[in-house]
Design a protein that fits this description.
heterodimer; A: 114 residues; mainly beta; 7-stranded mixed beta sheet; 4-stranded antiparallel beta sheet; B: mainly beta; 5-stranded antiparallel beta sheet; 0% helix
């Protein structure tokens, strides 16, 4: 099992460009999440999904959109990138059993916006 | 509101014991989780306390006191590979399936 995978691993964007980050999991998990992590800080939830076709806003959703068309995939889109979106982006998934306290993370995408 | 507080950094020598404290504020929660993250890596799940008391997993133990809104992660027989950031987290009330993370504690293990 690959677990949670993310593509791409690195990306450099110019201000105003758009991109989509792809997350895939092969554990048949219902829940999926997108976080961002800035230097020296914890993880902040951007958007999450509790099932195929459903998404919800997290703590810092502005400037991002998401879609969950298939259970195994969760896409994060940046429509018009800004330097403030320079960060490391982590995708995670979990099972709803027990409150989803155990989340499995992907390796991360390091995004720089110039 | 909801918040978690933990020290920013702890330094200890190999073989020692380190305790990372986590205090939280929330109107209700399901339990406290701990994650480890090495530099450049992804967070990995370490432990979860739903009830008061101590949970032991090898060299690592985690403790929760709901009445004190307090928990800690205990790292015993420290090894160089334990140098990492450690995050406590909880599910905010009415947010089944979501986790809120503390800012993390960087543990530095010296020879």
């Amino acid at each position: 099992n690959a677990g949670v995978t993310q593509t791409p691993k690195f990306r450099v964007l110019k201000t105003g460009q758009s991109m989509t980050l792809l997350c895939a999991q092969d554990m048949n998990h219902e829940y999926m999440y997108w976080y961002r992590q800035d230097p020296g800080m914890g993880l902040r939830l951007i958007h999450y999904s509790v099932g195929e076709g459903t998404t919800a806003k997290g703590e810092v959703p502005d400037g991002y959109n998401v879609s969950r068309l298939k259970k195994q995939n969760f896409l994060l889109g940046l429509e018009s990138a800004a330097p403030s979106q320079t960060s490391v982006y982590f995708c995670a998934s979990s099972s709803p059993r027990g409150g989803a306290y155990e989340q499995y993370f992907g390796p991360g995408t390091r995004l720089t916006v110039t | 509101g909801q918040s978690l507080e933990q020290p920013s950094e702890v330094t200890a020598v190999e073989g020692a014991i380190v305790q990372i404290n986590c205090t939280y504020q929330t109107s209700g929660f399901y339990g406290l989780s701990w994650y480890q993250q090495h530099d450049g890596g992804a967070p990995t799940f370490l432990s979860y306390n739903a009830l008061d008391g101590l949970e032991e997993t090898g060299r690592f133990s985690s403790f929760l006191s709901r009445s004190d809104s307090y928990g800690y992660l205990l790292l015993q027989e420290l090894q160089m590979k334990d140098s990492a950031s450690y995050f406590c987290s909880f599910s905010p009330p009415d947010s089944w399936g979501k986790l809120q993370f503390g800012a993390g504690t960087q543990v530095v293990v010296t020879p």
